[in-house]
Amino acid sequence: MIKKLVFFLAIAFTACQSTPTTQNIVTEEQVENSKGKILFILSNAHYYGASDINTANHFSEIVLPYDVLVKAGYTVDFVSPEGGAVPLGYLTTSNDVVKQYIYDGEFMDLLEHTQKPSEVNASDYQAVFYGGGGSAMFGVPENEAIQKIAMAVYEQPQGIVSAVCHGTAGIVHLKTPDGKYLVEGKKVNGFPDKFENMKGRYYQEFPFSIEQIIQERGGDFTFSEEGWDGFFVVDGKLITGQDPTGAAMVATKVVEALAASKLKS
C-alpha cells in the first residue's frame, strides 16, 4: 500500500515547509461512536501547473486535523478530483503525530484510494476540509463537482467549510445559491502573498494569488504578519487557517462549531 503512494520529502519551491507541533485538546476518551462524517478534499496534482516542478498535498496538513477529528469521534473520508492515490509531501518523522500516520498502513491505504466526486453523497457529511500543499492550487479549485459537494454541505443548517494554507484556494470559486461568492463579506485566512516567493518558478504556475482573488471577490483576507504562529480565522460556518501550524486548530474549531450547533438544534 505505502509503496504505491507517491512521496517526496523537501520541496524548495513551496512556502508551506515547516511542520508544527500539536496539542490536541480533544481526548481519546471522547471517542465512543462516530458523531458524524467529515470529508477531506485533496488534489491529484503531481506538478505545479504545466511545469516539471514536483508538488504534493501537505502531509501534516492532512494528518494533524485528521487526528483531531477522529479523536473527537468523527469519521473522515477523502475525495480528490480523479479519485485514487494522491501525491504526498513534506513528510517528517520529527513530529510524533505525523510519524504515527506515516507508518499506519490502514490510514495510508485511505490516501491511496480516495473517492471520486461522483462517489460522494454530500448529505452524509457535516463539514468539508480542504488540505493544503502546492497541489491544492491545481485541479481542486476549478472542479465543479467538488464545488457542488462543498456548497451542499455548507448549505445544511450545521454544515461547515474549512481549509488550511493553500487549501483555501479550493473555496475561492464557491458560490451561494444567490450567486454571490462564499467569501464575500467574510473574514478569510489562507497562505498570504507575503510568504510566497512571487518571483519563483513554482509561483508563476499558480492560477491565481489566494490573497488577491479573495479580496477581489469581496472577502476580508486576514492574516498574521508574523506567520507560523497557529493563526486561523472563524467567520460563522467558514473556518480557515494560515499554514501548517494552524492545521490542528482549524480542526479543533470545526469540532467546537459542530458541538455548538448541535446544542442549539
Condensed summary:
By secondary structure, this protein is of the alpha/beta class. Helix content is 26%, strand content 15%.
Question: Oligomer, anyone?
Answer: single chain
CATH superfamily: Class I glutamine amidotransferase (GATase) domain
Number of strands: 11
**Termini separation:** 42 Å
CATH topology: Rossmann fold
What profile does the largest beta sheet have? 6 strands, mixed
Mean pLDDT: 90
Explain this structure to me?
By secondary structure, the chain is α/β, with parallel strands linked by helices. The chain has one domain (2-14, 30-264): 3-Layer(aba) Sandwich (Rossmann fold). 26% of the residues lie in helices and 15% in strands. The chain is built from 7 helices and 11 strands. The strands form 3 sheets. A 6-stranded mixed beta sheet has the order 4-2-6-7-11-10, sandwiched between helices. A 3-stranded parallel beta sheet has the order 1-5-3. A hairpin with a 2-residue loop joins strand 10 and strand 11 (238-241). Helix 1 runs parallel beside helix 7. The longest helix is centred in the C-terminal third of the chain and has 18 residues, at 247-264. It is globular. The termini are far apart. The relative contact order is 0.18.
Topology diagram in text:
Elements: E1 7-8, E2 36-41, E3 57-58, H1 59-71, E4 74-79, E5 88-89, H2 96-102, H3 105-112, E6 127-130, H4 144-154, E7 160-164, E8 187-188, H5 201-204, H6 210-216, E9 220-221, E10 232-235, E11 238-241, H7 247-264
Parallel strand pairs: 1-5, 2-4, 2-6, 3-5, 6-7, 7-11, 8-9
Antiparallel strand pairs: 10-11
Helix pairs in contact: 1-7
